[in-house]
Specification:
Elements (H helix, E strand, L loop, with lengths): L2 H11 L4 H9 L7 H22 L6 H19 L1
Helix pairs in contact: 1-2, 1-4, 2-3, 3-4
């Protein structure tokens, strides 16, 4: 299972360590280019938002936050190739 598959799983499962695990998985690719670093930062902001919404039990926003994080992850994937 590659880094991106693990991240997709984290977004869907929404565990307690979502941000920490995402950072750890992305640490290896962040420094490849400025654009990729920006995309990773934007993705992490969305993951932080998702984690906050999960912890705050704001269920009405979970699917929207997951969808946004997934779209940002797609951008990270495209830039990492």
């Amino acid at each position: 299972m590659d880094c991106f598959s693990k991240l997709e799983g984290l977004i869907e499962d929404g565990g307690a360590n979502l941000v920490a695990e995402s950072r750890a998985l992305l640490a290896q690719i962040k420094g490849k280019s400025h654009e990729l670093a920006e995309a990773v930062d934007e993705f992490l902001l969305d993951v932080m938002t998702l984690e906050f919404l999960l912890e705050a039990e704001r269920e009405a926003f979970h699917s929207s936050a997951r969808r946004l994080a997934s779209m940002r992850l797609t951008m990270v994937k495209l830039l990492s190739d």
